[in-house]
Amino acid sequence: MKRIFVNEKWCIGCHLCEYNCAFANSGIKDMVKALKGKNIYPRVHVEGDDKITYAVSCRHCTDPICVRSCISGALYIKDGTVCIDHDKCVGCLTCILVCPYGAVSQDENGAVQKCELCLKNSAGAPACALGCPNGAIVYEER
Asked: Is the pLDDT of residue 122 over 80?
């Protein structure tokens, strides 16, 4: 299965992955209309300091503790990808607490969100990887 991999040596901390992610998941076809003047809620986050930066996103674990801890059954695995059924999420945020990678966050409505590899909104690869100018984020089989 293809997954997202990050090479922190190539990450320049530009945050374009965050903007591309937020845009891809907005449901709006124009990036300016989707993001200008709004708080963004990307499913990937750039972390680090002035020496090293890197993108944090879901690793789609083979035995994800977030799925096991979800009290409503909103988190599930589909073809190796950890996904969210937003209609089932009750906003308890347990998955945020248990994720060892910090890859689950709250969306603008207080429910949870995480990378779902842009399965519902992409042209073959996640928006963060397609929009990374340095190739620090790649979507590949390893």
From this structure: no
Amino acid 2 reads K
Tally Cβ neighbours within 10 Å of residue 92.
15
Angle 86-24-116 from CA coordinates, rounded to 5°: 45
Pairwise CA distance, residues 46 & 135, whole Å: 14
Q: In sequence order, what are the beta bridge partners of 71?
A: none
- In sequence order, what are the beta bridge partners of 46? 55
Q: What is the pLDDT of residue 142?
A: 83
User: What is the Rg, in whole angstroms, of the alpha carbon atoms belonging to the chain?
Assistant: 15
Maximum alpha-carbon separation in the chain = 41
DSSP state of 88: T
d(CA 35, CA 135): 23
Nearest to 43 by CA among 92, 88, 86: 86
Q: What kind and span of H or E run contains 63?
A: none
72-115 pLDDT, tens digit each: 999 999 999 999 999 999 999 999 999 999 999 999 888 899 99
Q: Length of the chain, please?
A: 142
